[in-house]
């Protein structure tokens, strides 16, 4: 989910007193610029000096910083950079305007702009922030005919963004769709084809001839998107393509066959589909029986238990009983899910008091269980308890326990624990009475603006008078010292995965210095040791690094700010989990495919350089044994 925190920034004033092209003394260091970016516009002196310096490195960093503020008031500081001598500066200025949702007429720059990377950025940004869907589509389709493959890729990015945002409410013209189909035929570049196919997907244009061309592509990524677009079956050698084909065109017979697929992603999907599609033929039941037998891998047993509960409850009972006693807690979670389908109250009562919080969450069905869970320090369990109590007839009687739970999480002084506190506050607001007024007023100055705002809304409803929060801006953690950042530019890391192997990473300090610093600090302190990957979404991402093995328990005490820009959520890139603007929690995700739709919204801080095949093998519950960061021994900074 994406809940956006209100941010109060100082208004932009008239700046750039020195000509942009003048070679003036360099009054700022890279460190000062990074620190100014961290301040989110509260102190613009270093950024103003850099913008006026004429130095392309500093101007590029300053433009990126201004874009990351995402405040239109700063637009005047970027406009002059669109004519800077350096193409790096112009490209960053264009992207920054896109980041702040500017409606500046960038298309007017195309006739005079000669640098292909800048032209590509203009086309991409036009699609992100269209002034008019119709005219923008025409401009972007013109870009598809450019002589440069770089520019054509930028135009394809723009079209994918445009149609993803607008196609449902404003169908693209026949001319636009025809231009995209023709571009798929003309362009063999994998990334460009993927983007164009995704644009057609957004428009629900499933042209069979276009799909046929894409299915012959040598890139599995292209074939995967083509299969999703055409919703057709292929038995492809690439696991990502087979998974996609089974997802969109799987049948009982196909699923039964692929339960034994060499890719565990495909095999687990096949097991799930046998339940989802209510497959009760002999081959399907035999496949589920094999997957659920005691000697099978626990994940196969677990998924099969849920599917059997849907199609063969009698067969499922014994499997659920066995899994409920498993030493692997994730297997017990599946046992609880299957027990709910079977209405097996005895198993659910047992699992509801399981020592593993995630098992108790899966088994929770009663008010009493929720009330007991309110005493837990596990964020996910407390959130589940608050959710279970929604609309409860006796909710008012639970106010003391709800407030105590909220206060306990607040006392941990971890602002990043937003999710359980927000859920608890919602229940408190639902049942609040006059005596709750004083308690709610104390929450108006909570360090988290989202919590303070919610408290103000509850008070407004309770008192009948408008109440404003005291906290309107989140104060981030202090910016690290130069010594703490030393060696991170050019740093690498090794992640050891238990039973799988080692994955090598290059850390992208030049793109996300704070994210790299936080990741390196956590890794060096051993904070990731023993944590798991709890979220596995084939053909999307894997996510891990939560102390609670869930979405809600952060690894950081403070929120991490976003560092979005030109870094891509490409296959093999690492990013930071978030629940809205500037609310990173330190959990990491890895892109299993090119996830273009995540670009410009999620921070990318590393890329896999060796071991991507191992990342493909990661499954739910796999353990991070260690992460070792190696800082660079050179002090020469790389250009942005």
What does this protein structure show overall?
The chain has helices at residues 30-38, 45-51, 56-69, 75-78, 87-99, 116-128, 133-143, 149-166, 174-186, 190-202, 208-215, 220-230, 239-249, 252-258, 264-276, 282-292, 298-311, 313-324, 329-342, 345-351, 357-363, 367-373, 379-388, 399-411, 418-431, 436-442, 449-463, 482-485, 513-524, 612-615, and strands spanning 492-497, 501-507, 533-537, 541-544, 573-578, 584-591, 604-610, 624-630. With 640 residues, the chain is α+β, with helices and mostly antiparallel strands. Among the domains are: 249-363, Leucine-rich Repeat Variant (Alpha Horseshoe), CATH 1.25.10; 367-463; 483-630, Cyclophilin-like (Cyclophilin, Beta Barrel), CATH 2.40.100. Helices cover 49% and strands 8% of the residues. Helix 10 runs parallel beside helix 12 and helix 22 packs antiparallel against helix 23. The protein has an 8-stranded antiparallel β-sheet with strand order 3-4-6-5-7-2-1-8. Residues 1-26 and 636-640 have low confidence and may be disordered. Strand 3 and strand 4 form a beta hairpin. It starts with 29 loop residues before the first helix and ends in a 10-residue tail after the last strand.
Largest sheet: 8 strands, antiparallel
Average per-residue pLDDT, rounded, comes to 93
CATH topology of one domain: Cyclophilin
> What structural class do you assign from the helix and strand content?
alpha+beta
Using only CA atoms, what is the Rg?
A: 26 Å
Query: Order of strands side by side in the largest beta sheet?
Result: 3-4-6-5-7-2-1-8
